[in-house]
Write a structure and sequence with these properties.
single chain, three-stranded antiparallel β-sheet, 2 domains, 8% strand, Arc Repressor Mutant, subunit A, 11 helices, Serine Threonine Protein Phosphatase 5, Tetratricopeptide repeat, mainly alpha
Length: 258
Amino acid sequence: MEFRLLGEVEAWAGDRQLDLGPRQQRLVLAVLALQVNRLVPVDRLVDLTWPESPPQSARHAIHVRVSQLRTILAMAGAHHDGVKIATRGPAYVLRADPMSVDAHRFRSLVAAARAETHDPELQASLLRRALDLWQGPPLADVATPRVEELCRGLKEARLTALEEWLGAELRLGRHEEVIDELADFVVQHPHRQRLLAHLMLALYRVGRVPEALAAYRLARSRLVDEFGLDPGPELQRLERAILRGDPSLDLPPERPTM
């Protein structure tokens, strides 16, 4: 059994996608899967499902949704994988292997990449595998303002992992391969100064120094005009280093193999 939350909410039994029912029902499963093996109070599910004015029957509606989800999982043979939705007082818990949930698998791969300090190729590969799990915004088809708030940490984790992957690719000398992607990301996330630093360094290392400096000037203007921020000290140091052609910016030569 596999649960997918990094995009539209889906559940798969082998190669068969399950019909999870209406939006509110998919939302209940998504919240339980985000908190897999942890108790989620019914009141919390009500609050996320009806963020404005929950009906008087809200708690009963949640019980009905959970009952329907249990039926769907049972008919798919979820019990063979040890997957079930259990009741614990006024709360529910989805019992499952956390690695069956793509959001938890994503975090596990990122943690493994950060622990990999001796093999940059493996580190980059683990981060790429983590990022490839994303098929869109988390819980894309059930999103409400409260749900988006719930997913804020996941969105930030994805951007941080993206920055780390691009940094790993630059350390491996793959500047040409990531420049176009980096430029797109900088446009999409103009406040992410680490992405801008990666782009400037990549442009510098492939000999496109004027473009690296132009990217800095454009970003500085945007940061000031839209966010009231100045570039951080590291970004300012990088600009100065590019201006003077600091050798420390060059890719270190490969160590000879024994």
